[in-house]
UniProtKB/TrEMBL annotation:
InterPro entries from the UniProt entry: HepT-like (IPR008201), HepT_RNase_toxin (IPR051813)
PANTHER family assigned: RNASE MJ1380-RELATED, UPF0331 PROTEIN MJ0127
Protein name in the entry: DUF86 domain-containing protein
Keyword annotations from UniProtKB, A to Z: Hydrolase, Nuclease, Nucleotide-binding, Phosphoprotein, Toxin-antitoxin system
Pfam families noted in UniProt: HepT-like
Length: 130
């Protein structure tokens, strides 16, 4: 398995964040609708897991500089969903999808923009947008 480099993860993560936002928007879901729809729960959980997986490769210094993101909580959600340790708390998944993922997207986009990264070009190159 190929090792994901920290910079690569930071550039790819906004695309995964946008997918989460698009799923929420496309399905016009709120928490109650999400909690009532098993297929949507599964789909959104997998998308959130991709964001968390990418974030696990972010540089330690970057994560330390953003304590407003509950990194350890996110890692626990990723592990629980990937290894099926427990029945997932879908309210928790919704909180992450609707709150933490947008926060990660804002932080990353600000950081990448400050570094001169053309986020839209990166997203096109990686197939996240057409």
């Amino acid at each position: 398995m190929r090792r994901i480099e920290p910079e690569e993860a930071m550039v790819d993560a906004p695309g995964h964040c946008r997918r989460v936002a698009e799923m929420i928007s496309r399905h016009a879901m709120d928490a109650d609708s999400f909690l009532a729809d098993y297929e949507y729960q599964y789909m959104l959980t997998m998308a959130v897991r991709q964001v968390i997986e990418q974030s696990s490769h972010f540089p330690t210094e970057f994560r330390a500089a953003h304590p407003e993101v509950p990194w350890s909580k996110l890692k626990r959600l990723r592990n629980d969903s990937a290894h099926d340790y427990v029945m997932l708390d879908n309210e928790w998944v919704w909180e992450v999808a609707s709150g933490d993922v947008p926060a990660i997207a804002r932080i990353l986009e600000a950081e990448l923009t400050a570094r001169g990264v053309d986020i839209e070009a990166e997203l096109r190159d990686s197939g996240f947008i057409q």
